[in-house]
Amino acid sequence: MGSVAMDSDYGATRELSSLQKQRALYRPALPPCLQGTAVRVEYGAAAIAADSGDANVISHAFPHTYGQPLAHFLPKTDAAMLTEHPVVRVGVVFSGRQSPGGHNVIWGLYDAINAHNPSSKLIGFLGGTDGLFAQKTLEITDEVISSYKNQGGYDMLGRTRDQIRTTEQVKAAITTCQALKLDALVIIGGVTSNTDAAQLAETFAESKCSTKVVGVPVTLNGDLKNQFVETTVGFDTICKVNSQLISNVCTDALSAEKVLLGVDVAASKLTISDITKQICDAVQARAEKDKYHGVVLIPEGLVESIPELYALLQEIHGLHDKGVSIENISSHLSPWASALFDFLPPFIRKQLLLHPESDDSAQLSQIETEKLLAQLVETEINKRLDEGTYKGKKFNAICHFFGYQARGALPSNFDYDYAYILGHVSYHILAAGLSGYMATVTNLKSHVDKWKCGAAPITSMMTVKGWSRGPAASQIGKPAVHMASVDLKGKAYELLRQHSSSFLMNDIYKNPGPLQFEGAGAEAKPISLCMEDQDYMGRIKQLQEYLEKVKSIVKPGCSQDVLKAALSSMAHVTELLTIMSSPSYSGQATI
Question: Are 419 and 441 spatial neighbours (Cβ–Cβ below 8 Å)?
Answer without folding.
Answer: no
